[in-house]
Amino acid sequence: DDLLSQAATMLERELADIDEFGARLEVLRDETEETTESTTTALPSGFDGVWSSTYGTELVLTQSGEEVTGSYGLDDGKVRFEVTGARMLEGVWAETTSGEECETALLGSDHWGPLVLVFSEDLSSYDGTWGYCDDQLPEEFYGYWNGSYLRPRDE
Question: Which of 13, 9, 8, 18 is nearest to 142 (CA)?
Fold first, then answer.
């Protein structure tokens, strides 16, 4: 019973963390949509560059308008995002292999999933969540994806 009680407590803490992250993500989505709607200037190009990454050692991003593409050093990892706010990217990751195989292919692979990155106000770091295949973020996610700005990318 004591072990079961400890496991239940740990599960409650994890679920609270998930709920808190989901709530923060929703607030940031609302804030970035308001910021985007209230300004007539172009979105910042601050996503372009080399970032540290939870997966692989580096995440290299290239921004062109409201589209951001990139790669990371794990199983030929690729990402493709849409800029959905001044500090938010929503899109997908893909690798040559992963923990789950999807029924459809994206970015040339059947190992992919959704990925949302939310950047700090000064664009120096990001926190995100990712899932497999058709998972719906933030409710369904497999893990966190974090990093910080390292340097401009090589042209």
Answer: 18
